[in-house]
């Protein structure tokens, strides 16, 4: 039987689009109010804020995150290749803007190691191309502002037009100029993606790709910090193969290691790792995480200051961190053009991490977020701070977990964290002058524990899915051994290729009947299945399209042990020879057999079926090539008096077959060619003569 299809009213897409355009372009007071309420979600939830219920958790989580943010911001400035003051600016502005525009109650948006690494690689490349010395210990610029000239080791300077005035720009100024231009472009990309609703691009970053990218980038981050750990001075490697080149330089210069830095690093890593492990073990007993990083930084700064480690042992220190805010400045347009391409992967990675974390915690705490608004929020967290000497931001998993564990209820906690950072910016920043860089490197390396632990999960990941494990390994290797940006691109392309390959060579099977039932399954996978006499049931577990057409035919011919084209050609050959011998009056055929014997041989023994049932339950769609392929096997098997029956087709496949003329012009034979279950097709085949 054939089920009657519903008649769908055709929608005039042009009229629908015009109606939506008219609606979106209309401006009424109510619509304007709704727009502002949607664009600034804080206007919706802040008036409903339950102060007595939420305030304690928000204040506590905000203070804890603020205390964690300060040492992390100073440490991650090493990754970004910028002064610590710019990291503090970034942490301050990101929290304020996300408070106004974000829809997640829990995520912590701010400085993030992977984003800092991406920014740092672009900054280092541009500094190198501009002729600056990448040595971190180059003499500092004379003066407080970022537009002062670097002296001696950085004599290269560039004329930049700033507010219509030509001013010479030194290394620090040029570095933050590159970072702000990169950040501005990343934010613009994110806002444009939000306007055009391009959030679907995040779907191409699978969990395996993201994990592999994070792990590979973590190896790069760890490698970049080793020189600070042991206090050697080596050039900062750039370009492809940075990880390998850096390790070669490290081993070449290992004899120059600073004993003071080595001892300090060993003590700090032992303390930090021990505190983290104890915190993880007893986290259910602790009301809030131990501020280990802050304690280590305070103690290390005091020891370095009073022990004069910089003067006596030549230990590298952070140097002067100015207080207050530098006047805002528009990012340079010329620099934007230089980094426009680099900003694209930065924008995508920043957005994907933020939205994925927002969705994860929204699901956990039973509320909803708006992904498109999250894209706007993270975009403006990059655009606006770029005018205030800040660089790119993203949500960070570790800090978000800390926020939730310390009682965070809303983004009020983000404002509290920003106030802590502001306190450091205005008053406490100069106190970190004597802080050793090796201590900051230790904080960065210990923060990578989570990403590096992914190596322990490889056997379990391999057991679950071998292809996903291969994607993880390829992405991780490319990110670490080539570069982070290329690694991300390689991971995306490779994962898509894996999907294509899996649809090009999917599982195929001949089905047998489960005894005493109307169900059918793979004859090679299950025991005690009975074959159906005179009927072959073929399953193809993928869409049928141009890329897997040949594999479909080869699998069908191999499993049924019959290639209709070869059989038809063989029969024509025998018929031709038979006619030639009959014309000559020879009743013996070319192979020495009689006419009756030859006729019997024309019907080969291997054709042991009269009907072929194609199980289409796993065929999600057909393209033109797929329809033509089914029409081809229908014709070829018909020439051998074998009927082809289709079973379990979805409506999309049926429509494609109708449009392709598979059932004829008037669909008159459709009832004899299409069945809604395999069993119905088998029963029909058995009833045929």
TrEMBL record:
GO terms for cellular component: apical plasma membrane. One of its GO terms (molecular function) is secondary active sulfate transmembrane transporter activity. It holds the Pfam family Sulfate_transp. Residues 525-685 form the STAS domain. This is Sulfate transporter. It catalyses: oxalate(out) + 2 chloride(in) = oxalate(in) + 2 chloride(out); sulfate(out) + 2 chloride(in) = sulfate(in) + 2 chloride(out); nitrate(in) + chloride(out) = nitrate(out) + chloride(in); oxalate(in) + sulfate(out) = oxalate(out) + sulfate(in). It comes from Zosterops hypoxanthus. It is a multi-pass membrane protein. SUPFAM superfamilies: SpoIIaa-like (SSF52091).
């Amino acid at each position: 039987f054939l089920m009657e299809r519903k008649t769908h009213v055709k929608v005039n897409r042009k009229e629908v689009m015009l109606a939506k355009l008219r609606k979106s372009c209309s401006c009424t007071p109510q619509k304007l109010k709704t727009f502002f309420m949607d664009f600034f979600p804080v206007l919706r939830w802040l008036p409903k804020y339950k102060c007595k219920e939420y305030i304690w958790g928000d204040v506590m989580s905000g203070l804890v995150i603020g205390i964690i943010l300060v040492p992390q911001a100073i440490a991650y400035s090493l990754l970004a290749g910028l002064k610590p003051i710019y990291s503090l600016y970034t942490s301050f502005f990101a929290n304020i803007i996300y408070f106004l525009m974000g829809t997640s109650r829990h995520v912590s948006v701010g400085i993030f190691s992977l984003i800092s690494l991406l920014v740092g690689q672009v900054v280092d490349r541009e500094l190198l191309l501009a002729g600056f010395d990448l040595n971190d210990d180059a003499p500092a610029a004379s003066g407080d502002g970022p537009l002062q000239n670097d002296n001696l080791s950085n004599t290269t300077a560039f004329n930049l037009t700033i507010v219509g005035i030509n001013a010479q720009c030194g290394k620090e100024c040029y570095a933050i100029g590159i970072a702000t231009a990169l950040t501005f472009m990343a934010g613009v990309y994110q806002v444009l993606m939000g306007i055009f609703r391009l959030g679907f691009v995040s779907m191409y970053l699978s969990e395996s790709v993201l994990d592999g990218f994070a792990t590979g980038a973590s190896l790069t981050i760890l490698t970049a910090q080793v020189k600070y750990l042991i206090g050697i001075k080596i050039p900062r490697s750039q370009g492809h193969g940075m990880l390998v080149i850096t390790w070669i330089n490290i081993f070449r210069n290992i004899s120059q290691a600073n004993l003071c830095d080595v001892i300090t690093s060993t003590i700090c890593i032992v303390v930090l790792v021990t505190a983290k492990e104890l915190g993880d073990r007893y986290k259910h007993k602790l009301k809030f995480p131990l501020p280990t990083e802050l304690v280590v930084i305070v103690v290390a700064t005091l020891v370095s200051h009073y022990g004069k480690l910089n003067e006596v042992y030549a230990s590298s220190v952070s140097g002067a961190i100015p207080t207050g805010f530098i006047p805002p400045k528009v990012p340079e347009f010329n620099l934007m053009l230089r980094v426009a391409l680099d900003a694209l992967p930065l924008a995508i990675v920043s957005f994907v991490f933020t939205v994925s974390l927002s969705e994860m915690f929204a699901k956990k705490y039973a509320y909803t977020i708006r992904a498109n608004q999250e894209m706007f929020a993270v975009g403006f967290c990059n655009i606006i701070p770029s005018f205030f000497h800040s660089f790119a931001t993203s949500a960070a998993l570790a800090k978000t977990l800390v926020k939730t564990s310390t009682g965070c209820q809303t983004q009020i906690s983000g404002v509290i964290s920003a106030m802590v950072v502001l306190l450091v910016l205005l008053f406490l920043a100069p106190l970190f002058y004597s802080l050793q860089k090796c201590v900051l490197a230790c904080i960065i390396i210990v923060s990578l524990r989570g990403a590096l632990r992914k190596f322990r999960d490889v056997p379990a990941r391999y057991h679950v899915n071998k292809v996903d494990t291969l994607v993880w390994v390829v992405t991780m290797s490319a990110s670490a051994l080539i570069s982070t940006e290329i690694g991300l691109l390689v991971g995306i392309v490779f994962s898509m290729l894996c999907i294509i390959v899996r649809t090009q060579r999917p599982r195929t099977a001949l089905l047998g009947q489960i005894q005493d039932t109307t169900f059918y399954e793979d004859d090679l996978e299950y025991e005690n299945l009975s074959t159906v006499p005179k009927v072959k049931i073929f399953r193809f577990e993928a869409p049928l399209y141009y890329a897997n057409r040949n594999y479909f035919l080869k699998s069908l011919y191999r499993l049924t042990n019959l290639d209709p084209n070869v059989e038809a050609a063989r029969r024509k050959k025998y018929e031709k020879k038979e006619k030639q011998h009959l014309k000559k009056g020879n009743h013996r055929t070319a192979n020495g057999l009689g006419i009756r014997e030859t006729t019997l041989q024309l019907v080969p023994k291997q054709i042991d079926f009269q009907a072929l049932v194609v199980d289409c339950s796993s065929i999600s769609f057909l393209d033109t090539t797929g329809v033509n392929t089914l029409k081809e096997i229908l014709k070829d098997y018909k020439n051998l008096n074998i009927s082809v029956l289709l079973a379990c087709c979805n409506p999309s496949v049926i429509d494609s077959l109708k449009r392709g003329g598979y059932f004829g012009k008037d669909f008159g034979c459709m009832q004899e060619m299409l069945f809604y279950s395999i069993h119905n097709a088998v029963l029909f085949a058995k009833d045929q003569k």
